[in-house]
Amino acid sequence: MIELVPLQRQFQSIRQEMLQALADTIDSGKYILGPNVQRLEQEIADYLQVDHAIGVANGTDALVLVLDACGIGPGDEVITSPFTFFASAEAVSRVGAIPVFADIDPQSYCLDPVRVEEKITPATKAIIPVHIFGQPADMDEMMRIAEKHGLIVIEDACQAFGAEYKGRRAGSLGHAACFSFFPTKNLGTIGDGGLIATSDERMAERIRTLRQHGSRQKYYHSEIGYNSRLDELHAAIVRIGLTKIDDWNGERIRLAGRYRAAFANAPHVRVAEEKPDRTHIYHLFCIESDQRDVLQQALAGRDIHSGVYYPLPLHLQAAYAHLGYRPGDLPVSERLSERILALPMSAFLYDSEQDRVIEAIAAAQGDVAP
Ligand SMILES: *Cc1c(COP(=O)(O)O)cnc(C)c1O
User: Fold this and answer.
1) Which residue among 109, 180, 228 is best mutated to probe the pocket of ligand 1, counting the most ligand atoms within 8 A of its Cβ?
2) Which of 22, 81, 251, 350 is the most buried (most CB within 10 A)?
3) In terms of domains, do 236 and 261 share one?
4) Where a domain ends, among 218, 242, 266?
5) Which of 64, 154, 158 has most ligand 1 atoms within 8 Å of its beta carbon, as the pocket-test mutant?
6) 157 and 266 together in one domain
7) pLDDT tens-digit profile of 164-204?
8) Same domain, residue pair 93 and 66
9) What percent of the chain has pLDDT over 70?
10) Whole-angstrom Cα distance, residue 52 to residue 279?
11) CA of 81 relative to ligand 1 center, distance in Å
């Protein structure tokens, strides 16, 4: 069986270091916001070239805390992508604001700046571009639009640790950025974790207070906050991953290159463009096909797992029925949801396994009506 993401292989490859980190954490007596969280925050700030990194409980909380720290709440609108994991919009709703969905660019699957600008109203406070599947969104345009309209830009970089945009790291491009260390993310742990990156000193201070019950000094609370901290043990594990992440991303990029070459002339399979000024770190490798379900079944018949990310765009989710969107409102996202298929991708996928995936797609194409 070929898994979509052979996750155990990744963690088994750092098993000894993880066991040592567990032993060290047990012996340290410091389990919450201890030295590993502090060091990880410094290491990631250095890696991203930002002034502040703040560990939190998960990527969703990272988004919620940034929105809250920016004072975004009821009556405010936040523009984001309908083609992403639910959390990108859920966080907006969680602080009481309204997610406004703008359609995506069919080449990169990221928010289309032209569509974003069309959705701006006097109530708009922020834009959340999502670096979907590991390729940064068009951040120069997002920042230009934000400046023109006085908006905050929050990067949802949960799928893009280590990706670059014009030589700068994803996560250092907006006013703040959110990361997730969920196990399947390209930099992950064996549980939940998240992080916020920003160079805005006041925002960083506010988030540090919010993540700890609105408290700067123990048992004194200046505001209503959250309990949203990155665990010491998970910080220790992410620190191990951080020493490998450039190699792991490099391997993903190499495997993506093999897929791209294999599908370059495939009649029924389309692979989205890589933008020339960005590095796509391939959190997921996706193809598009009119016969997506046939391909997925053909792969399953050979014991190869594939996945549909995402089968229903957010503006058509039941949870957002009250927003009043209709099928056809955001056609690029809707069409993509019917065509997209993620193939096995990981730094720990073997070339021989990938060859079997490529063969299976080629064989299935013979079965697919043109
Ligand atoms: C995973 C993910 C999140 C949420 O992160 P969690 O750590 O699972 O809360 C948010 N946005 C995107 C794009 C994600 O992929």
Assistant:
1) 180
2) 81
3) no
4) 242
5) 158
6) no
7) 999 999 999 999 999 999 999 999 999 999 999 999 999 99
8) yes
9) 99
10) 23
11) 13
Q: Are residues 39 and 169 in the same domain?
A: yes
**Domain edge (last residue) among 190, 207, 242:** 242
Q: Which domain does 261 fall in, by range? A: 245-367
Confidence check: pLDDT of 207 > 80: yes
- SS3 (DSSP) at 96: coil
Number of domains in the chain: 2
CA distance 111 to 122: 20
Beta bridge partners of 285: 343
Alpha carbon nearest to ligand 1 atom 7, residue: 59
| 150-164: burial string, b at 16+ Cβ within 10 Å, e else | ebbbbbbbbbbbbbb
- Cα–ligand 1 centroid distance for 358 (angstroms): 29
Which region, left, alpha or beta, applies to residue 245 given φ > 0 means left and ψ of -120 to 50 means alpha? alpha
Give Cα 361 to chain centroid, integer Å.
Answer: 27
Same domain flag for 252 and 210:
no
Q: Does ligand 1 lie within 6 Å of residue 194's CB atom?
A: yes
pLDDT in tens, 9-24: 999 999 999 999 999 9
List residues bridging with 341 in a β-sheet: 287
| Atom 5, ligand 1: residue with shortest CA distance | 59
Answer yes or no: is the C-beta of 306 below 6 A from any ligand 1 atom: no
Burial class (CB in 10 A: 0-12, 13-18, 19+), 23: exposed
Element of type H or E holding 118: helix 113-118
- Point out the ligand 1 atom lying closest to the alpha carbon of residue 194: 7
Tracing tokens 């996202």 back to the chain, one arrives at 333
Predicted pLDDT at 367: 64
Residues 155 and 174 both lie in one domain: yes
Distance, CA of 42 to CA of 138 (rounded, Å): 27
Please tell me whether residues 59 and 33 are part of one structural domain.
yes
pLDDT digit string (tens) for 48-102?
A: 999 999 999 999 999 999 999 999 999 999 999 999 999 999 999 999 999 999 9
- What separation in angstroms does the CA of 282 have from each of 27, 81, 246? 37, 19, 13
